[in-house]
Write a structure and sequence with these properties.
There is one protein chain. With about 230 residues, the chain is mainly α. It has two domains: about 15-75, Winged helix-like DNA-binding domain superfamily/Winged helix DNA-binding domain (Arc Repressor Mutant, subunit A, Orthogonal Bundle), CATH 1.10.10; about 80-230, GntR ligand-binding domain-like (Four Helix Bundle (Hemerythrin (Met), subunit A)). It is about 70% helix and about 5% strand. It has eleven helices and two strands. The chain has helices at about 15-30, 40-45, 50-60, 80-95, 100-120, 120-135, 140-160, 165-170, 175-185, 190-205, 210-230; strands spanning about 65-70, 70-75. A two-stranded antiparallel ribbon has the order 1-2. Strand 1 (about 65-70) and strand 2 form a beta hairpin.
């Protein structure tokens, strides 16, 4: 459907055009759908190509479009990895403490475990047990173990039935992986993590929501202590 011609203020014109297009993308756009050509956008907004290109750059920076040479701009779903990296940078630049990071992990992951214990399926539990089986291997590199450890917690959130909860855990991936990695280097950290993950798994299998939540809290409290030992925090 052809869009009506829009009236835009000349000051900050590219930003206003980007905002209008963003609202349209979020409300009715579909990933893979092509935006209008530069010429069509110029005519619609009564703007120069320079202004339209600046507006498209803003949309690209917001993760809403990708440009294809010779073809134009297409709608894309914002990449959660980009947001995760941005959050990690903000946390470092603002000096947000590791305790705040663990507070977020406590509430997000405990809530996810409780929901999964209440609503999980056999398929959900088998998928988590497959991750645990891989974690027991002594042949894993540090990065492989870190990623599998995070994957266990992420999978609980993804299978919790709460899409926003899963998304929030995913956006914290870079930060959570950073604190997870420290436990690998602490004496006994690997064996302890395997045991504590299994306790979470057992509680989920028992469909004991309160126990699953408690096992997550105890696991993350030990993870926090490992972080403090690794960084020699008094």
């Amino acid at each position: 459907m052809e869009k009506p011609k829009a009236i835009i203020r000349r000051s900050k014109m590219s930003e206003e055009i980007a905002n209008i297009l963003e609202e349209e993308i979020l409300s009715e756009g579909r990933p893979g759908e092509r935006l209008g050509s530069e010429q069509q956008l110029c005519e619609r907004f009564d703007a120069s190509r320079t202004v339209i290109r600046e507006a498209l750059k803003l949309l690209h920076a917001r993760g809403l479009i990708q440009s294809r040479t010779g073809s134009g701009a297409y709608i894309v779903r914002p990449d959660v990895k980009d947001l995760s990296q941005m959050i990690a940078r903000i946390i470092r630049m603002d000096g947000i403490s590791y305790r705040s990071v663990f507070d977020v992990r406590y509430y997000l992951e405990a809530a996810a475990a409780r929901r999964l214990a209440e609503h999980g399926t056999e398929e959900d539990f088998l998928a988590l047990e497959e991750i645990l089986q891989k974690l027991r291997s002594r042949e894993l590199t540090v990065i492989e173990r870190r990623d599998l450890d995070y994957s266990f917690h992420e999978s609980i959130a993804q299978r919790s039935g709460n899409q926003l909860l899963a998304l929030l855990v995913e956006t914290m991936a870079y930060v959570f992986k950073d604190v997870i990695k420290t436990g690998i280097f602490v004496a006994g950290g690997i064996d302890d993590a395997i045991i504590r993950h299994q306790r979470i798994m057992d509680a989920l299998r028992e469909r004991d929501a309160a126990k699953a939540e408690r096992m997550v809290w105890e696991h993350l409290d030990q993870s926090r202590q490992n972080y403090e030992v690794y960084h020699e925090i008094k």
